[in-house]
Amino acid sequence: MAAAYPKLPALLLFVFIAAAGVAAAETTPAALDEVCRGLGGFYVTPELCASALCSDPSSPCRAARDAPAVAALAARLAARNATATQAALAGNATSSKEEGVRACLELYGGAVAALQWAAASVAAGRYRGAREVLFTAQYVPAGCDGMAGGGDAAALPRENGGFSYMAMVAHAVIASMIRD
Fold this sequence. Notes:
Pfam families: PMEI. The chain has helices at about 10-25, 30-35, 45-55, 65-90, 100-125, 130-135, 140-145, 160-175.
């Protein structure tokens, strides 16, 4: 029979190797899971990390191939989230706390520009400056809360609170990429 099918042993070996590769790929944790599991030192649970980075069902969060791709995703999402918060604030500028909301809008304006720079830096593999930008960005929502009346939920859009979590997770992911 081997003479009738001389390539059969090679074909069987190929099928076996391919099947083993598929099984290994199915059991290998996604890069996102690996990164999120390592953030406990930054007070970010794996669940918070995954929910912040994968909140949009169309997000390619689980397709990130390695830790640098997860870091780039986190920085990009932080910049997008700040931009969305800024837009929501612009629509809220007619509230009763108008002066505080305008000040908050200016604060987000500066944060958006810095976060866009940080996202580009992380995408290029430069983490150090981006880490500091994201560290500072974590305090933008609290600053806005204080400027807009100290807890007046009607004055600030819900995106302000959402950005707080995104900035915290993005900072933890970027900081985890730096080996001091």
